[in-house]
Amino acid sequence: MLAFKxxxxxxxxxxxxxLLLKNFELSPKLEQSQKERLFIEDICKxxxxxxxxxxxxxxxxxxxxxxxxxxxxxxDFPSLQVDYLFVDNRFRGKPLDMLEGExxxxxxxxxxxxxxxxxxxxxxxxxxxxxxxxERLEDVYKEMGFSYLPKHKPxxxxxx
Length: 160
Description:
The protein is of the alpha+beta class.
């Protein structure tokens, strides 16, 4: 059954990074897989220090991906930030039946928007923002409806 598991500083297991690295397939390209490993280790440290919350998308036996979210402000605009979005290499760019034909990355972004809208009902929040790692990802996020924040490029946003 498809579900999200939430990890915060209060309930993340010791060595969350080892759990994730053991269950995810990283890029087959050495340089990219090293970057992914470092990002995962860094995000897990941030989770343990209350700097971000990680939402792990999984099916019974399979980890599909995760997104980590934190509060931020870009200029004068309170925002929910996507710190890191990761999709298991086996599922990158592929529409999945278990996600009703959605790609895992799109599903994680839609989930993030849902979280942001729920938070918006309780606190001032204007955007979901992220900082793409490269130009290829900028194009992917544009396809998902993100735009560049004026005066804050390369930050991208979706208005809530």
